[in-house]
Amino acid sequence: MLIGIVGKPNAGKSTFFTSATLAPAKIAPYPFTTIKPNRGIAYVRIKCVCKEFNVVDNPKNSKCINGIRYVPVELLDVAGLVPGAWQGRGLGNKFLDDLRQADALIHVIDISGGTDFEGKAVELGSHDPIEDVKFLEREIDTWFSQILRRDWDKIIRIVDVGKGEDIIDVLTQRLSGLSIERKHIVTAMRTLGLSSKPSSWSEEDILNFASTLRKISKPIIIAANKMDLPKAEENYNRLIKELKDYIIVPCFSEGELALRRAVERKLVRYLPGEAKFEIVNSKLLTEKQESALKFIRDYLNRWGSTGVQEVLDKTVFNVLKAISVFPVEDPNKLTDHSGRVLPDVFLVREGITVREFAYKIHSELGDTFIYAIDARTKQKLGESYILKDRDVVKIVAAKGIKS
Asked: Containing domain of residue 349, as a range?
């Protein structure tokens, strides 16, 4: 899964990215610090099955701490977006192109209202963060609609006049570069009740289709960043009241980054997403560090977490509706061919069949699929079996190919 981190300049995107991944990213209090996209690996939390099966696992593609499995996802931190980005203003064209493959977007906003649309510092509370939400979505929607309009006459000729091809097939092919699938297009057209004849679509239809398609194919969660600043809580309360259809998570990404850096230096013990941390040795702390940790502790006592891990978890499980599946070679010992216990876990979309899952592991495994075995019940599962969260399965394939 690829998750894009978006927002206007100086909203804290790169701080959020670094706090989630500990990957290097340039952070500075001025616009357009990020020019080239930063890529890194973050982790989402699931309840591992190791305690249920009473085994000690040997994770290969993830890590397990006290029965909580941390599963990797890829984050992409792109250049800040300013009004007019779809026309190429600022780094707009690059920003939008970088987002083509993203499955979901985390919109990092300055909830304190301390930066304007351009990312320039203003008096705290003087800028309305709700307007940031509206403008970013408007920019992406317009970008989508421009991509459609660019080839619309050609689409009309192909569907209505020429070969009479199905509009869904044509749009699927045209929009594949945006990681838009056939099911996204079908859902958007049904939602809006659009005709199968593109010549009958108005300009408003195209824009509404682009907006609906964006919501379906690149859903957005809001990280209300800079919650530690004055005016932030007031704006946050207004946001959750006025934007009821959005998932909005209060965030203090600078605090999360400070804690993760402190863990690296062995100054504190802390697990991402937890509501507390433990100082290892207070004698190692400078007065400034001690003061900063006290501020962070007070924040955690007030809000329960820094919000960074919560945003990641909610993006994957609430927005993308992902489930976790554990493939094994031996359904009795829960091992792979090397004897590692519960070595892998995959994050897949809700509704996936066990054969589709086999393809996720390896294309040949999907091609030669015979059946699967449920490690809990030891029952055979046919190719149309829809996987459930935390299923543990063995894939049986022809020609001796196994999971």
From this structure: 322-400
